[in-house]
Specification:
Elements (H helix, E strand, L loop, with lengths): L2 H18 L5 H16 L8 H19 L9 E6 L5 H13 L4 E6 L8 H8 L15 H6 L2 E4 L13 E4 L10 H22 L6
Parallel strand pairs: 1-2, 1-3, 3-4
Helix pairs in contact: 1-2, 1-3, 2-3, 4-7, 5-7
Protein name: Arsenate reductase ArsC
Keywords: Arsenical resistance
Pfam family, one: Phosphatase-like_N
Length: about 210
């Protein structure tokens, strides 16, 4: 780890401390931050962005843990989209969910075997709908994130997907967009949009458009 990365991690720890200091102690915050950093460092091709990715993922994990422990719950439904690489289907689903639900619900995504980057063709076809998922990144699922979700949507990860008793699961059978060109991904994208809209209706969440 370079000196610049250490400085960036220290800044990230300070940011998280200001946000979660009233809920978690410094050791917990730093443990989640450094664990997140290590998860991405193992396969990242953009080391300069590792501290930022680690901060973003640690923030998500701490919010999830806070909800699981009953320290924070604003009443909004939380949906977790899971696939194998968290590079295509689950990223598109999260993109549609966040765009359509706005501030009325929360969406997370993860993968059983996270890839190195989000599928470029998936980014392109989502941009055709005015939805930017280019700043997203493949990430693993963690226990607290799964436990904090109200609904877990699985897409092709099979037995590798986490199962917790009492948790509501839905399995969406969708083609994997990996290796496909935009023309072949558009039908997958459109099916994902249809399913996300139906899910929002079921959850009683108003959808834009």
């Amino acid at each position: 780890m370079s000196g610049a990365q250490r400085h960036a991690l220290s800044s990230a720890a300070a940011n998280l401390g200001r946000e979660f200091g009233g809920t978690f102690n410094t050791d917990t915050i730093e443990r989640f931050l450094h664990a997140s950093y290590d998860q991405f460092a193992a396969h990242s091709t953009v080391p300069n962005f590792l501290p930022l990715l680690a901060e973003r993922f640690a923030r998500q994990r701490l919010r999830a843990l806070s909800k699981v422990e009953g320290n924070a719950h604003d009443g909004r439904p939380t949906v977790l989209f899971l696939c194998v690489h968290n590079a295509g289907r689950s990223q598109m689903a999260m993109g549609f969910f966040e765009y359509l639900a706005g501030d009325h619900a929360v969406a997370w995504s993860g993968g059983s075997e996270p890839g190195r980057e989000v599928n470029a063709a998936a980014i392109a076809v989502m941009a055709e709908r005015g939805i930017d998922i280019s700043k997203e990144f493949p990430k693993p699922w963690t226990e607290e994130i799964v436990r904090a979700a109200d609904v877990v949507i699985t897409m092709g990860c099979g037995d590798a997907c986490p199962v917790f008793p009492g948790k509501r699961y839905l399995n969406w059978e969708l083609e994997d967009p990996a290796g496909k060109d935009p023309a072949d991904i558009r039908p997958i994208r459109d099916e994902i949009e249809h399913r996300v809209r139906a899910l929002l209706t079921e959850l009683g969440v108003p959808a834009r458009g």
